[in-house]
Amino acid sequence: MGIVDVVVIGGGQARLAAGYHLRRKKLDFVILESQSTPGGAWQHTWDSLHLFSPAAFSSLPGRLMPAQRGQEYPNAAHVVDYLADYEERYALPIHRPVTVRAVHRDGARLRVATDVGDWSTRTVVSATGTWWRPFVPAFPGSGAFAGRQLHTTGYRSAAAFTGQHVIVVGGKNSGAQIAADLALADGVQLTWVTQRPPRFLADDIDGRALFDAATARRRALDEGRADTGGVTSLGDIVAVPPVRTARDSGLLKAQPMFERLTTDGVQWGDGTTARADAVIWCTGFRPALSHLAALGLRGRRGHIAIDGTRALDEPRLHLLGYGDWTGPASATLIGVGRPARDAAESIMGLLRV
Ligand code: FAD
To answer: Are 338 and 61 in contact (CB under 8 A)?
Structure first.
């Protein structure tokens, strides 16, 4: 059994930011991650995905992301290279592939049970992301639909849908980007459906403004002022270049949500139908927290009650990178640095006692 002061669980950007700050504090830690190669979820996104912020505004603590030649907004492959370089540069103590099955209380310590053995630790940072828990709403008729159904996580490129009619569900960034990818491809017939009319951000607004809005919201709430609405007050969809091109060419017209799936397509409330070969559900994610079930901490909407990043009912546990509830914009490259630093500081304080 390995014995350390801190176990970080996860393999993406959040655990790298945590590793950076834990190393600076000279803490005794390991990072356990289930994948064989660096890059977290970025290894699995669709081929045409580009960041919604320039490289310099998509950086982890300590090291600027270099610009990608010819691209104002780097692609996912560039992010994977940056994360691989980052973990090597800071010589982070990563064990992979190691899948954490459960975290248990074990007296004054925590026991982290994995597929290759146990670690005993004084504290845990959970940074397992959301990509691994896709959310698809239950929908009437979905069992009867004879075509293909997939979630955002299953989409790689339009080439797989040539000659097909595809329905994309979802009015946020994933839905708009995948709809644009299909709309701009030859030989794909697209229907884009959204719960409410899509809200595009102004063309000159990108991830930088989103980060500022999320930070301002957190500050307002912390100071007891009125909720500013954060990112959602600006709109839902960043007009990255392919989305802008498809929208300006009139190819991104959204239909309202259908009422049910049928055997060969979908049906709206007024009886109108559309035939479909595939439905792509771009309907979001939930935090991947099943490895923490044995601690009995789950509360509303599957979240765990926290103060900063520390679990209220288990102060030896920190949660990092799952969304605004674990820090403003903490599920983004630029946003995870600050909560990672705060978590490392809090752990340092706890270990001193
Ligand atoms: P992940 O990258 O998911 O990493 C989690 C890691 O934990 C994985 O390696 C996984 O294998 C591992 N793991 C999970 N469970 C276990 C377990 N039980 N044991 C061991 N290891 C485990 N952010 C931006 O900053 N800019 C953008 O432009 C941007 N665009 C996005 C576009 C899309 C479509 C999506 C979905 C997200 C986007 N994000 C963007 C948000 C965010 O940056 C990514 O979701 C990012 O991958 C989150 O990093 P993470 O480290 O929290 O999680």
So the answer is: no
- Reduced to 3 states (helix: H, G, I; strand: E, B; else coil), residue 273 is strand
pTM, two decimals, is: 0.92
Report whether CATH 3.40.140.20 matches the domain 148-200+236-276.
Answer: no
Nearest CA to ligand 1 atom 33: 174
Q: What is the pLDDT of residues 256-306, one digit of tens each?
A: 999 999 999 999 999 999 999 999 999 999 999 999 999 999 877 778 999
Top-tier CATH class for 2-132+285-352: alpha beta
Count how many Cα atoms sit within 13 Å of the Cα of residue 239 in the half-sphere of its side chain.
Answer: 16
From 15, 16, 30, 34, give the residue whose CB has the most ligand 1 atoms within 8 Å, as the site to mutate.
Answer: 34
Q: From residue 62, give the alpha-carbon distance in Å to each of 24, 55, 133, 273, 334.
A: 11, 14, 30, 54, 11
Q: Of 233-242, 276-285, 326-335, which gets the smallest average pLDDT? A: 233-242
Q: Whose CA is nearest to atom 41 of ligand 1?
A: 332
Which of 83, 151, 332 to mutate for ligand 1's pocket (most ligand atoms within 8 Å of CB)?
332
Asked if pLDDT for residue 158 goes beyond 90, the answer is yes
Q: Is 52 in the pocket of ligand 1 (CB under 6 A)?
A: yes
Determine the distance separating the centroid of ligand 1 and the alpha carbon of 81, expressed in angstroms.
15
